[in-house]
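Q: Here's a chain of 90 amino acids. Please give me its 3D structure as tokens.
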Amino acid sequence: MHMLYNSDSYAVVQIDVPSSAGSSAGDSSVRGGYEIVDKFARKETFIQGAMAQSFQEGVQALIENDPSEEGMDAYLERFSSLMLQPVVMH
């Protein structure tokens, strides 16, 4: 688990899980994705697969063109409709 971004509004954590179940010897594939948390709405989502790849490409493009906190928060706001899971402290 790696904290990639943390602002007053959002947090993004990259989660990588080694694929050990059913993998052949020497196969070091990794599965995982990104957890995006809206701190004000207290909701989060986890994206993986093609959506995670698209997210990563969008972040890379943003870093190259507008690496400001406001730009990143505006990009993350696009994912707010996916944030249905409430954030619960335990």
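Q: Can you summarize the key feature?
A: The chain has two helices and five strands.
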